[in-house]
């Protein structure tokens, strides 16, 4: 990549960086889009004397463009891309040793919960799950051997909002790292490094890719030593993305600002409409003023995102009928693509959580989660209206 043509971090607005950061026209051909460097290996001029790339697990120019782009969007010095969000999260866990302790949210992403318990407990890394919207609960869970506080905001599926600065302060008081999974908000709405986090992780599969056509992950940081370790684990563990996948995510990040504006606008509109709907008993959206952490969200985020959940006065079966009878919303897990998705956490994303635990956590049978896409909001509203009416009346 011709780094001289790529804008310097901080020099341009987010929208400009989304399109240009990490990417200049290809110096050999002038190609405007970053080429897909489909190489496993690179010529050396003499043994050990290479032009920046030796082998594509270690580094690849298309991946470098993506890593520099993501770092710029988070306002960070360093970025690393992975083959999935879980590959990125696992890399942070690779920093720990037997006997270390982790504190995280009790409603953390299911895959993260599985990794921390079913994989890392066998290596004697123990995790405490607490309500991270309450910094005192985080403080109470800290131990002398706590090395990492892992948080996520907004959370899934109840859209709780964590005060990143408050949690980072607790972590730092105990010499632990603070990592934030910024998948739901994206750097367009929230940049956790500005609020004291040491590491930001992403599932690129969601809004950053944005088109439900790629799986990827990333870590960004301002700490050079941490970045070097992430690079060591990229190379040693090998959870790195293909150049084609990097190209797809680069294609997505260029339109992130315009997509997010519309995701937020459509979600805000639907949240307000659902809030007034007679069959809906609760709406979980940080943009609603009565959301318990609305003030934190308003301070920490530039807008409230495209994800929301709502609770119907309905049985599990009736709610299943609702999610099964939409025409514009697709019944599917995942989120963050241009198309609207609908799902029922109880039998789908949160099926592994026992019913009693699920209900204690506020995940009722009638809870429905939507990833609000970029279709006409009138069509989305009409679709939910006919699905709810058909299933409940
Ligand atoms: C999807 C997701 C992940 C995992 O990412 P993959 O790309 O599916 O491996 C992690 N955290 C959050 C919040 C997610 O939504």
From TrEMBL:
What PROSITE patterns does UniProt report for this protein, alphabetically? CYS_MET_METAB_PP
Q: Does the keyword Calcium apply?
A: no
What keywords is this UniProt entry annotated with? Pyridoxal phosphate, Transferase
Task: Quote the Gene3D superfamilies the UniProt record gives.
Answer: Aspartate Aminotransferase, domain 1, Type I PLP-dependent aspartate aminotransferase-like (Major domain)
Q: Mind telling me which CDD domains this protein's record contains?
A: CGS_like
Cellular component GO terms held in the UniProt record: cytoplasm
- What is one process in the GO biological process aspect for this record? transsulfuration
Q: Which InterPro entries match?
A: Cys/Met-Metab_PyrdxlP-dep_enz, Cys_met_metab_PP, PyrdxlP-dep_Trfase, PyrdxlP-dep_Trfase_major, PyrdxlP-dep_Trfase_small
The keyword Transferase belongs to this UniProt entry's keyword annotation: yes
Q: Which family does it belong to?
A: Belongs to the trans-sulfuration enzymes family.
What name has this protein been given in UniProt? Cystathionine gamma-synthase
């Amino acid at each position: 990549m011709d780094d001289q043509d790529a804008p310097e971090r901080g020099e341009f607005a987010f929208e400009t960086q989304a399109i240009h950061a990490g990417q200049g026209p290809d110096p050999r051909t002038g190609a405007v889009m970053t080429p897909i460097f489909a190489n496993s290996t690179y010529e050396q001029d003499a043994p050990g004397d290479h032009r920046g790339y030796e082998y594509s697990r270690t580094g690849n120019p298309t991946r470098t463009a993506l890593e520099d782009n993501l770092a710029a969007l988070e306002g960070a010095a360093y970025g690393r891309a992975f083959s999935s969000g879980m590959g990125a999260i696992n890399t942070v866990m690779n920093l720990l040793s037997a006997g270390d302790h982790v504190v995280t949210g009790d409603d953390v992403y299911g895959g993260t919960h599985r990794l921390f318990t079913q994989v890392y407990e066998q290596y004697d890394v123990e995790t405490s799950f607490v309500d991270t919207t309450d910094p005192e609960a985080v403080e109470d869970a800290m131990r002398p051997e706590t090395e990492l506080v892992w948080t996520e905001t907004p959370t899934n599926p109840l859209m709780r909002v964590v005060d990143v600065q408050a949690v980072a302060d607790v972590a730092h008081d105990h010499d632990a790292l603070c990592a934030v999974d910024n998948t739901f908000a994206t750097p367009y709405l929230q940049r956790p490094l500005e609020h004291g986090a040491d590491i930001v992780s992403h599932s690129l599969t969601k809004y950053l890719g944005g088109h439900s056509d790629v799986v990827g992950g990333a870590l960004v940081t301002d700490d050079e030593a941490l970045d070097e370790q992430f690079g060591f684990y990229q190379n040693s563990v090998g959870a790195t993305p293909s150049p084609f996948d990097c190209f797809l995510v680069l294609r997505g990040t260029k339109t992130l600002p315009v997509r997010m504006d519309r995701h937020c606008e459509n979600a805000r509109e639907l949240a307000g409409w659902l809030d007034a709907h007679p069959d809906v008993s609760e709406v979980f959206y940080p943009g609603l003023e009565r959301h318990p952490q609305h003030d934190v969200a308003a301070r920490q985020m530039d807008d409230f995102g495209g994800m929301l959940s709502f609770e119907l006065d309905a049985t599990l079966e009736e709610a299943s009928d609702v999610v099964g009878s939409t025409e514009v919303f697709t019944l599917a897990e995942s989120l963050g693509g241009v198309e609207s998705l609908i799902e029922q956490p109880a039998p789908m994303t949160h099926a592994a959580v026992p019913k009693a635990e699920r209900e204690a956590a506020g995940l009722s049978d009638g809870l429905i989660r939507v990833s609000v896409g970029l279709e006409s909001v009138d069509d989305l509203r009409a679709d939910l209206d006919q699905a709810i009416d058909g299933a409940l009346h």
